[in-house]
Amino acid sequence: MAKNTTVSVINADVGSCPGHVAPEKGMIELFEKHIESEGLKKGLIEDFRVYNCGDDIGVVMSHFRGKDDEKIHHLAWDGFVKAADYAKKLKLYGAGQDLLKDAFSGNVKGMGPGVAEMEFVERKSDPVLVFACDKTDPAAFSLPLYKAFADPFNTAGLVIDPKAAVGFSFDVMNIYENTVVRMKCPDEIYSMLALIGSTGKYAVKNVFINGNLPETESICATVCTEKLSLIAGQYVGKDDPVAICRAQSGFPAVGEILEAFALGHTVAGWMRGSHRGPLMPVSFEDATPTRFDGPPRIIGLGFQVGNGKLVGPVDLFKDPSFNITRERCMKVAEYLRAHGPFEPHRLGEDEMEYTTLPKVLEKLKPRMKKLV
Predict the structure, then answer these.
(1) Active site includes 190?
(2) Please, what are the domains in the chain?
């Protein structure tokens, strides 16, 4: 029986230069050498690619060990620790900030790094897209995944491809209560939108093609939905989520999935994780947010996965056809920035609960007097 292939994407901000802009080159090289020597050469993984988006270092690993494997997670954790130690010696900004625990405890979930993993039976040809964001939160993927897997105005295959016409089901997660509900589309589109439209509370976690296939054959997309602020109890940095999508052959085409990011939709995050801004799709080389630590951005890494190996990545958003999206994002960023500390640029009070704002309000509390 053929082994299932697993693609694991794990990222963390463990130091950057200057401020929250980008990891120092030596950090990336050190992390890459660690994954190669301790993972690839020792046969723990089949293949890997290291990338960075903004101030995060990330790694895409392919292996046959399944999701939540302790050795795979430990491999990434140790690499982040080494990169963080290097960053501390250079006194880089935020050195080790996403490593919220002192020691590895079997799984990086809940320890700070972001993680998205997908185990699947390889098809005859398996295009796999990896998306990495900087300066935003997990709900940033909800709108594009809805458009890619449920909106026929975005995805023509929902209308003209009999394989895709069966529709897709979405796991929707309540981020604060750590609960999930599976919703079948198109049957439950309206009810699902009622949830995921509340981006501060709900986020799409997984997407499956409808039918009676096992999860390893029906899985289409998965998203990292961990919020650093909920783990640490206060603002400790942006969440910088990652996602994995499979494409073609009954799933949306590569171009249909990418089309879902052509709006440059508004997301939470940006400066201090406390503002709204447009999610700008950019090339690898342009994933260095500087304006007000932003605006939020996303890169796309395109792979073909075969026999556990990764072919790629292709820089998916380097395409100049996304220039109009980037131009729109810059105009939206200009408009929102003009609001300064006022909503809608700044997040609503409920979403500011885990930022540094409560410390300001606490100082003012004794001075609050009731009106007669």
Answers:
(1) no
(2) 1-120 (3.30.70), 123-348 (no CATH)
